[in-house]
Amino acid sequence: MALQTDALALQTDALTLQTEALALQTDALALQSDALTLQSDALPLPNLICYKLNKMLY
User: According to the lineage, what is the superkingdom (predicted)?
Assistant: First the structure.
């Protein structure tokens, strides 16, 4: 009976670790999504800077 209890405790621990791993993966995906959004937002900046510089020069 003690072995079954130990086995169930180990299974519970394993499920807890899997849950924590999934939560970390979810957080990582959210960070990747944020990074892609920032990259996308930054794409027009060089053109905008060139436009502003040209406007100042001419």
Answer: Bacteria
SS (H, E, C) 8-37: HHHHHHHHHHHHHHHHHHHHHHHHHHHHHH
Q: Provide the residue count of the chain.
A: 58
**Average pLDDT of the residues of the chain:** 95
Q: What is the pLDDT of residues 45-57, one digit of tens each?
A: 899 899 988 989 8
Question: Tokens 């510089």 correspond to what residue?
Answer: 53
Q: How far apart are CA 48 and CA 42, in angstroms?
A: 10
Q: Containing H/E element for 3?
A: helix 2-42
